[in-house]
Amino acid sequence: MCCEFHDRRQNMANSSCETSFYDVNVISEDLNLLHIELDTDLIENRSNRKDAVCSKNVLRKQRHWERQLAAKRSKRKEEKQRRKLNREQTGDVDTPEFTKRVLKAITKERLAEAQSTGPRLCVDLSMTDCMSDKEISRLAGQIRRLYGSNKKASRPFHLCLTDFKEGSRLYRECVRMNDGFLNYTMKLTEQSCLDLFPSETIVYLTPDAEQALQSVDPDKVYVLGGLVDESIQKKISLDRAGELNVVAARLPIDEYMMKKDNLKSFHSKILAINQVFDILLTFCDTGSWTEAFKLWFPLGKGYIVHPEPTES
Ligand SMILES: C[S@@+](CC[C@H](N)C(=O)[O-])C[C@H]1O[C@@H](n2cnc3c(N)ncnc32)[C@H](O)[C@@H]1O
User: Fold this and answer.
1) 112/105 Cα distance (integer angstroms)
2) From 205, 234, 250, 269, mutation site for ligand 1 pocket: most ligand atoms within 8 A of C-beta
């Protein structure tokens, strides 16, 4: 097309004075041709450039991943050597080093055993309808943390999520947010705690109860209210305990802690379910509320452990 255009320009130059209808047509055709040519070139150039940028990006990413992989490998190797050295120094050479897979299997077995012999705890999910989507997401995160703590525990609890409707907002959020949720070693059921356990064994934990929890009794079933209330609605779990006609108890915060001065004068005894659970786990391990509160009571709640608790 370029040559054709050149020849025609040549002809036009030869008969410069004769501008005819034919010439106008030819020029416009030429311009069209030129236009088409230019566009095609432009598109080709652009796509070539894009390809080059693309492949540069791909290469850069690939190099980045390779560097990361190499760093990970050498870190793993260093870590392995460090552990080996440690074992040699402590004379612990006979203790087998468990691989991740073995450790996972041991944890799974311990959790499975706890499902039949461990102390029992339900999270009552019958009250999630009135919660916002944000609260539902936070509750799903708290369930993940609670389960994570149980996995790490030396003596895990037998866990149940009760009144847990398949396909509900919370169910979908748990599956979306929590890796492997449907394989968690805990009972997921649409039944309520009363369908599963005799009412006289149930102790509903609520910050608004009069009675303080003394200890964790292996014959009882402890129930946490599956609630995240950003707009603190008081006594929901206490009302629920009344509705179920079961005993209600609060953590013994008044007995083992005291208010701490703070700028905002903020004091709260309402904890998230995973925080209550961490306190219960440590109490079961140590038999000491002081230890459990020291370790797990959130600093921002405006309480510190009492140097002379009213109960010991
Ligand atoms: C964020 S709290 C919900 C607070 C809510 N206003 C209510 O009425 O329960 C979530 C759950 O954790 C447990 N919980 C929180 N703080 C507690 C405390 N100080 N004593 C006993 N249980 C507590 C309760 O089971 C409670 O339902």
Assistant:
1) 10
2) 205
Asked if 197 and 219 count as a contact pair (C-beta separation under 8 A), the reply is no
Q: How confident is the model at residue 17 (pLDDT cuts 50, 70, 90)?
A: very low
> What does residue 257 show for φ and ψ, rounded to 5 degrees?
-135, 165
Confirm whether pTM is higher than 0.85: no
Q: What's the whole-number mean pLDDT along residues 233-249?
A: 95
Residue 94 Cα to ligand 1 midpoint, Å, equals: 47
Strands of the sheet containing 158-162, edge to edge, are: 187-188, 158-162, 120-124, 221-225, 202-205, 247-249
Which is the closest atom of ligand 1 to the Cα of 253? 19
pLDDT digits (tens, 9 = 90+) for 188-216: 999 999 999 999 999 999 999 999 999 99
Instruction: Report CA(276)–ligand 1 centroid distance (Å).
Output: 8
To test the ligand 1 pocket, which listed residue (124, 130, 237, 301) has its Cβ within 8 A of the most ligand atoms? 237
Distances (CA, A) of 138 to 20, 60, 174: 81, 37, 10
Cβ-based neighbours of 41, under 8 Å, separated by 6 or more: none
Contacts of 151 (CB under 8 A, 6+ apart): 107, 111
Ligand 1 site residues, Cβ closer than 6 angstroms: 205-207, 224-225, 227-229, 232-237, 250-251, 253, 269-273, 276
Please name the fold of domain 108-305.
Alpha/beta knot (3.40.1280)
What digits encode the pLDDT tens for the residues 38-91? 454 555 566 666 666 668 888 888 888 888 888 888 878 887 777 777 767 666
